[in-house]
Amino acid sequence: MRTRHKPWADDYLKENNQIVELDPFQHKNSWAEVFGNDNPIHIEIGTGKGQFIAGMARQHPDINFIGIELVKSIIVSAVDKVKDSGQDNVLLINEDAKDLRELFGENEVSGVYLNFSDPWPKTRHEKRRLTFHTFLEQYKGILKEDGELTLKTDNRGLFEYSLVSFSQYGMKLKEVNLDLHKEEDPLNIKTEYEEKFSEKGFPIYRCKTSFS
Ligand code: SAM
User: According to the 3-state scheme, what is the secondary structure of the chain?
Assistant: First the structure.
């Protein structure tokens, strides 16, 4: 995702600390206290500009959402989307999601979303794909028994790779959709990338999977 450098981004995130959790690692195992309720927690890795997480928070007020985005100049747009949504069931974290077990305890999370993750097509970069087995191990470490991992992408290579990776890890494939937009689904909240690629006529792939 291309973006201009925004020198004010750091201050903006600090000013919006009711939405941006500035010291998220201290909340491992106590996110329910941060939200002030025991509702299920769903996380999105690589939230981008926040259209999905803000839309999901609006659609599911009984779920708490946490969006993790590495790049400051991108996450500031997500802050604005969350603000505009007026929802209090969504928080943002500006961190590298390299080990989610530092942020969340065992069984603390009920849903993980990987939306249009960087495909890292070169074989030598396989380890960076968010569906490489080391990442699956992390998701397993934080997801509840009946928790679900949902992947959406326009990238056929990443999709096929991920299906194989899930299967090799012994995960259960609950849905494999090869053309998500073929039929209108009012429950499907589109991400910014999803809108862009589907407008160009590319099929959108989705897979829902779980560890048990
Ligand atoms: N999910 C959004 C969408 O569908 O519109 C953005 C997709 S964009 C291709 C991938 C996003 O993931 C970028 O905003 C990037 O900065 C973020 N990202 C990549 N690696 C990350 C990591 N290790 N931790 C957190 N965010 C990451």
Answer: CCCCCCCCHHHHHHHCCCCECCCHHHHCCCHHHHHCCCCCEEEEECCCCCHHHHHHHHHCCCCEEEEECCCHHHHHHHHHHHHHHCCCCEEEECCCCCCHHHCCCCCCEEEEEEECCCCCCCHHHHHHCCCCHHHHHHHHHHEEEEEEEEEEECCHHHHHHHHHHHHHCCCEEEEEECCCCCCCCCCCCCCHHHHHHHHCCCCCEEEEEECC
